[in-house]
Write a sequence for this structure.
């Protein structure tokens, strides 16, 4: 299938869903997004720049997962690494600790010492690591996010928005190591001088009080107030909620996650023509069945699909062999990629159309 023909179609979906204007959230800023597509499902001042306390560590932990290499790698802590105020995983000067345990120390205990140690271990200094954080934010297309510390301690110029923090969480949850740590209620870690076993418990109470929760991170400083990022997956749906400066965040997130999940409906979509013909170079015709897809959609969803098929096929072809594929998109993000297979087998054969197809193939290769 060296040369593909692409068929594009668009299906705009309008659903009867409840209005979200009646929901009252205590936060200065809040947002709920579809965790697969990034579509905003609910917002309240979601583009307002605010400080975000220890939810900063979502980016720090993501960079550790992306740049740390083998998370089993161990380092020995220095005074510069562990001299930091605030919440801690209990690191002391001279401790041996793995990148894995630093990840869990950030995500469960919200250790500022873990964040500081990560920054220096990865980049050589806190300032250089902060540069990496801001570069990664730029790569994500974020324009209202700027980092000054890896831990989230208050600092001038350290800010994000509820919406952009949700996008950071979306990106981070695509990393398997990060997602596993974010969803852990507790973890047995081994570090120290000499190392010994410790049990850390996650500060995120939603992991125990809300069904189908998959993380993500708490945060608090006097300036930032209570900050929380949460995410839930249920029945193939995935939503991420963020609140900044919210005195009632646990209750608000239960409301927001419920709301987000309720605004997503599961629908089945099919192409306009479910069967198409495709020929072999020898002129034999095969009927290909184009599969439908089950897609999660919301009130403003635009579902499109693209069918990728070769201009012709080479024999022999076995029944069930993939001869193309159909991709379904929701608001531009791919949500389903399904193979199109041959409905029958064809062996090598000769007929009068073979030469025509060979000439046609030669012309196409030069276009």
């Amino acid at each position: 299938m060296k040369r593909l023909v692409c068929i594009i179609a668009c299906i705009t979906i309008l659903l009867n869903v409840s209005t979200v204007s009646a929901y009252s959230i205590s936060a200065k800023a809040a947002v709920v997004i579809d965790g697969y597509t990034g579509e905003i499902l609910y917002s309240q001042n979601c583009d307002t720049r605010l400080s975000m306390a220890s939810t900063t560590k979502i980016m720090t932990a993501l960079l550790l997962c992306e740049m740390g290499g083998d998370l089993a790698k161990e380092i020995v802590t220095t005074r510069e690494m562990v001299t930091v105020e605030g919440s801690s995983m209990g690191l002391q000067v001279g401790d041996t600790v793995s990148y894995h345990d630093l990840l869990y120390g950030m995500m469960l205990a919200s250790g500022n010492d873990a964040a500081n140690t990560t920054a220096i271990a990865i980049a050589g200094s806190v300032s250089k690591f902060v540069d990496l954080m801001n570069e990664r934010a730029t790569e994500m297309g974020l324009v209202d996010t700027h980092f000054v510390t890896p831990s989230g301690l208050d600092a001038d110029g350290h800010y994000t928005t509820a919406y952009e923090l949700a996008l950071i969480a979306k990106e981070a949850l695509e990393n398997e190591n990060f997602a596993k740590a974010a969803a852990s209620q507790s973890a047995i870690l081994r570090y120290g001088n000499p190392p010994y076993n410790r049990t850390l418990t996650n500060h995120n109470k939603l992991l125990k009080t809300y069904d189908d929760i998959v993380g993500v991170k708490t945060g608090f400083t006097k300036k930032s107030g209570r900050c929380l990022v949460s995410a839930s997956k249920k029945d193939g749906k995935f939503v991420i909620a963020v609140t900044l400066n919210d005195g009632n965040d646990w209750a608000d997130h239960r409301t927001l996650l419920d709301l987000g999940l309720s605004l997503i409906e599961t629908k089945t979509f099919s192409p306009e023509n479910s069967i198409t013909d495709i020929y072999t170079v020898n002129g034999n015709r095969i009927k290909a069945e184009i599969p439908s897809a089950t897609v999660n959609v919301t009130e403003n969803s635009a579902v499109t699909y693209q069918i990728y098929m070769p201009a012709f096929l080479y024999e022999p072809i076995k029944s069930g062999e993939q001869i193309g594929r159909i991709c379904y998109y929701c608001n531009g993000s791919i949500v389903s990629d399904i193979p199109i297979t041959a409905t029958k087998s064809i062996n090598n054969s000769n007929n009068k159309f073979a030469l025509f197809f060979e000439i046609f193939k030669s012309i196409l290769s030069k276009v």
